[in-house]
């Protein structure tokens, strides 16, 4: 796992000193080695976290004929099979790394190399002969890549950090701030910085020196439901899971697993135990809040499979450390599970350099109750337009109105309501026009708040049925929230995290199935449950779904209260984006009686990030 920066230009608009300073911003992604390559005004930089082929495999790496140069972040799990295939074509390898296999695969197969890769990856390859660049991001966006074009230079980086020290990228995009408030994250291709873009999952790009922008095309999308797709039997599915676990355990450094006590991580532990000749290293986090804590169940799983288990108390993070952590994000990100995930990753990195995680199990196999909303329709109270218009005209936002308002919505409108924190709703704690200062209502495009999700969902159909909901979530909630959370948290701790539920073998076999086959009879994860019930203790699966829950309202009014007040005080004098009277009202309500979470947390995350960014480097 690594970080990279590519600056491709025909004039020295960005000098080598500025480029090196920019690359230093991602040193945490690769603390083991630093490498750079330059020719004329083209510069490639790499920071390495050594996992495979520790002795060689340094980057940037040149092809055998010296024509191509690559910087690469990720792991290619089928690199040994590809290496064998290329060797039969006469390719001679000088390292044992997957980087060289990827590079020589590109030399041999060109752009179609991405169709052969099983893994998590983001890379840029520079063609010295034609002065062109080619790059790609893995199918579901496990690994990130951002890009921009400025003054004739094409800049690509693993994350946004390098852009913050480059002069042309200082302005915040109001629409991206809206997205953060609505979704907890900023969906691709937007970033928080005006002029900087994310490469969307499953996409590749080509760029030629002198082009105004790269040519981007999608090479993969989640397949639509296929009536011919047959449900795998228990034996076949268990075999696919076991193979995915086996090849994602390949590492030249110690490896472990995040164990939450939920179905997905517990199943990974069970299958890892079969592959390992010594106790699996497992790591969990414990909350003082009994309603949020699953550490006892994680301990039960650890004992059953004989793991070497370590538990960390979650509330060791004080307000100053919280502000520092949020300030280290490359862009604001408001899933509060990021905080315990970082603490877990930091603890884990003290013992191993690689960990497996259960991310993706819910999205691939149908683990969220919200997916069942797509095939249900409830009676609605008439009079929505009258109620909506009355509330908008009056400016009145009664605290107890949300349930009545929701009952007047159509099925499609209820989906939108359920998918966002804030929207264009005249309801207290749900209204973007209430949290944003009035001067930003137009520039933030409040009325278009659901566009990022709808743009993805429309690839699969016009109706929000369960098949559309699940597929859209792969390209939104999974890619932009769950995987971003895991990548940023783990990389800040210099830990590589792998996600076997997103192995291409499983995706190719499971994604074509209709949603009703994955959730047969309304049973979440119906395909996995026979395996789960056979392998795991009953307390793991015989209980309501829990998730990596953070008791946010209690933290915001308790241990993190000084951080909230510090962020609000700074924001009032430095950031005119928010209505601070509304935010302080939320804070006062939460202190008095609790119940306020993301509505306050999301703006505080933005302010903490902006506050850290305002400080001199």
User: So, the CATH homologous superfamily of the largest domain?
Assistant: Aminohydrolase, N-terminal nucleophile (Ntn) domain
- Under CATH at level 1, the class of the largest domain stands as Alpha Beta
**Strand fraction band?**
5-15%
The computed structural class is: alpha+beta
How many angstroms does the end-to-end distance come to? Answer: 26 Å
Q: Which percent range fits the helix content?
A: 25-40%
Global Rg? 24 Å
Tell how many strands the DSSP assignment holds. 17
Could you describe the 3D structure shown?
- With 617 residues, the chain is an alpha+beta fold.
- It folds into 4 domains: 2-218, Aminohydrolase, N-terminal nucleophile (Ntn) domain (Glutamine Phosphoribosylpyrophosphate, subunit 1, domain 1), CATH 3.60.20.10; 234-367 and 483-541, 3-Layer(aba) Sandwich (Rossmann fold), CATH 3.40.50.620; 368-449, no CATH class; 551-617, no CATH class.
- Helices cover 39% and strands 15% of the residues.
- The chain has 24 helices and 17 strands.
- The strands form 3 sheets. The protein has a 6-stranded antiparallel β-sheet with strand order 2-3-1-9-8-10, covered by helices on one side.
- Helix 22 (561-574) packs across helix 24 (598-614).
- The longest helix has 27 residues, at 466-492.
- It is globular and about 75 Å long.
- The two termini are 26 Å apart.
- The model has no long low-confidence stretch (mean pLDDT 93).
């Amino acid at each position: 796992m690594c970080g990279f920066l590519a600056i491709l230009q025909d004039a020295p608009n960005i000098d080598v000193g500025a480029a090196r300073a920019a690359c230093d911003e991602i040193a945490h992604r690769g603390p083991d080695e630093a490498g750079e390559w330059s020719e004329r005004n083209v510069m490639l930089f790499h920071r390495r976290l050594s996992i495979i082929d520790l002795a060689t495999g340094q980057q940037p790496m040149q092809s055998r004929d010296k024509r191509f140069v690559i910087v690469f972040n990720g792991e290619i799990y089928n690199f040994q099979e590809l290496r064998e295939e290329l060797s039969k074509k006469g390719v001679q390898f000088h390292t044992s790394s997957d980087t060289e296999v990827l590079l020589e695969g590109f030399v041999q197969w060109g752009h179609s190399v991405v169709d052969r890769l099983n893994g998590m990856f983001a890379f840029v390859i520079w063609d010295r002969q034609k002065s062109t660049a080619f790059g790609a991001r893995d199918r579901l966006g496990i690994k990130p890549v951002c890009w921009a074009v400025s003054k004739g230079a094409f800049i690509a980086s693993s994350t946004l950090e390098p852009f913050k020290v480059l002069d042309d990228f200082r302005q915040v995009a109001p629409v991206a701030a809206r997205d953060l408030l609505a979704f907890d994250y900023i969906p691709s291709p937007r970033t928080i910085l005006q002029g900087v873009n994310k490469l969307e999952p499953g996409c590749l790009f080509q760029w030629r020196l002198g082009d105004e922008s790269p040519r981007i095309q999608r090479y993969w999308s989640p397949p639509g439901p296929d009536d011919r797709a047959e449900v795998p039997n228990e034996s076949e599915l268990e075999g696919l899971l076991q193979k995915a676990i086996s090849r994602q355990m390949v590492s030249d450094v110690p490896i472990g697993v995040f164990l939450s006590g939920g179905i997905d991580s517990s199943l990974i532990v069970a299958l890892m135990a079969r592959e390992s000749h010594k106790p699996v290293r497992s790591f969990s986090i414990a909350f003082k809040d009994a309603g949020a804590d699953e550490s006892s169940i994680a301990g039960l799983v650890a004992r059953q499979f004989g793991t070497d288990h370590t538990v960390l108390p979650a509330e060791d993070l004080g307000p100053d450390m919280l502000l520092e952590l949020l300030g280290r994000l490359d862009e604001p990100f408001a899933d509060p599970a990021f905080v315990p995930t970082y603490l877990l990753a930091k603890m884990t990195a003290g013992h191993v350099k690689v960990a497996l995680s259960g991310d993706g199990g819910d999205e691939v196999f149908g683990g969220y109750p919200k997916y069942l909303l797509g095939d249900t329709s409830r009676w609605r109270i008439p009079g929505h337009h009258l109620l909506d218009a009355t509330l908008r005209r009056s400016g009145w936002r009664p605290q107890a109105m949300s349930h009545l308002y929701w009952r007047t919505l159509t099925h499609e409108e209820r989906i939108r309501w359920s998918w966002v924190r804030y929207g264009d709703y005249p309801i207290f704690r749900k209204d973007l026009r209430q949290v944003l200062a009035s001067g930003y209502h137009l520039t933030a495009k409040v009325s278009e708040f659901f566009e990022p999700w709808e743009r993805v969902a429309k690839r699969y159909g016009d109706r929000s049925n369960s098949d559309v909901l699940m597929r859209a979530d792969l390209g939104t909630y999974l890619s932009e929230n769950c995987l971003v959370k895991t990548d940023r948290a783990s990389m800040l701790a210099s830990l590589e995290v792998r996600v076997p539920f997103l192995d291409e073998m499983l995706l190719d076999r499971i994604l074509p199935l209709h949603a009703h086959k994955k959730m047969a009879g309304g049973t979440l994860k119906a395909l996995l449950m026979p395996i789960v019930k056979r392998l795991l203790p009953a307390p793991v699966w015989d209980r309501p779904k829990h998730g990596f829950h953070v008791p946010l309202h209690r933290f915001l009014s308790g241990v993190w209260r000084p951080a909230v007040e510090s962020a609000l005080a700074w924001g009032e004098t430095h950031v005119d984006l928010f209505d601070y009277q509304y935010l302080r009202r939320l804070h006062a309500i939460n202190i008095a009686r609790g119940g306020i979470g993301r509505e306050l947390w999301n703006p505080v995350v933005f302010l903490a990030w902006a506050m850290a960014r305002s400080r001199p480097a």
